[in-house]
Amino acid sequence: MVFVVVGLSELFTENLFGPTTAVIDRHQRSAWIQPGRLWAVVLVLNLVGGAVMAAIFSVEGTLPVGATSSRK
Asked: Is-above-0.70 flag for pTM?
C-alpha cells in the first residue's frame, strides 16, 4: 500500500468498475473474453511479482541486520 500511495499509483480495483459494468451491459459472452484475459494476466503477473519479491528478500544480506527479528 505504501508503494501505491508514495508512487502515486492506482490499485487494480480502482479502475475495475467501469470495464465490468460495460461488459455486463452488453449481455454477450464474447464481451467477457478481453477483460477475462486482462484479469488472468494481472493475476499471473501479481503472483510472479510476489514470488520474485519473496526470492529477493530471502537472500541473506538483502535486508539490513535485525530487520527480520521481532522486538519485544
From this structure: no
